[in-house]
Amino acid sequence: MIRQRRHPAATQGTVRLEAFTDGVFAIAATLLVLDLTTHQLGEVESDAELWTALGAMTELFFNFALSFVLLCLLWMVHVRQFEYIARVDATLMWLNSGRLLFIVLVPFATGLTTEYSEYLAGRLAMPVTFFFAILLGALEWGWARRRRDVLMPDVDETDAVVQGRGSLSALLLSAATVVVAPWIGSAGFLLFALDGPVTRILEGKRAADQPADRADPDPRDESAR
Fold first, then answer.
1. Which end of the chain, C or N, has fewer beta carbons within 10 A?
2. End-to-end alpha-carbon separation of the chain, Å?
3. Residue 173 CB partners (closer than 8 Å, separation 6+)
4. pLDDT at 32 > cutoff 50
5. Which helix (H) or strand (E) holds 59?
6. Helix crossing, 120-146 with 157-184: angle to 10°?
7. pLDDT tens, 111-140?
8. Interatomic CA distance for residues 162 and 197, integer angstroms
9. Closest by CA position to 138, among listed 104, 118, 176, 168
10. Which residue has the higher pLDDT, 165 or 172?
11. Are 128 and 179 in contact (CB under 8 A)?
12. Bridge partners, residue 12, by sequence
């Protein structure tokens, strides 16, 4: 049976998109361990030599743990976004696919940074990959907010703006990481320790940006009625 063509502006539920995205994140996180399992320790004939060989893998372990934690944070952002997004359209699906393109590159970028950290391209591989993944995620939320009446019908504008500021915090910190990476490499990701304070500062603008008609009613007005 020939499927009926749908209008280009048509939307659909989020279940399949969420399941696909969860699967891609899970596979990317799993592939990170390949750099550990394929690393050769060399000839080991004593406990001391084994500990020395494992100590030589410090940077490998650090980048593995760092990428895994960052992937988990990005996945949690995805989960939070789809607590609000009720429908998806073609543009949102493409933006989500763009984000996943960089998510699947994370294992490769992590290995590149670990293996070639003495070169500029190697030091930038991880920061640039995560920057674009975060950027696409922010654009995805921006599009959902733009079509809020269709994609997020139960979310008001103020809540949409506040939620977007969390993505803005991550985007700013990832950009700063790219800037400092040529000098300190993946250690620049330690800037993400500031994510909580920066997000709170950005979300602190909520009260100032809140429309006057959403302010709490004056009790005196209620009594006058």
1. N
2. 63
3. 191, 192, 194, 195, 198
4. yes
5. helix 58-84
6. 170
7. 999 889 999 999 999 999 999 999 999 999
8. 14
9. 168
10. 172
11. no
12. 88
What pTM value is reported for the model?
Answer: 0.81
Contact 163, 154 (CB under 8 A): no
DSSP line for 111-155? HHHHHTTTSHHHHHHHHHHHHHHHHHHHHHHHHHHHTHHHH-TT-
196: its two tokens: 């909580």
Number of alpha helices (DSSP H) and beta strands (DSSP E) in the chain: 11, 0
**3-state SS class at 101:** helix
Q: Are 71 and 28 in contact (CB under 8 A)?
A: yes
- The single residue listed with the structure tokens 């500021």 is 165
Residue 94, token pair as written in the block: 């493409």
Give Cβ neighbours of residue 164 (< 8 Å, ≥ 6 apart): 138, 141, 142, 145
Tokens of 129: 């990959």
Half-sphere exposure for 217 (CA within 13 Å, toward CB): 7
SS3 12: strand
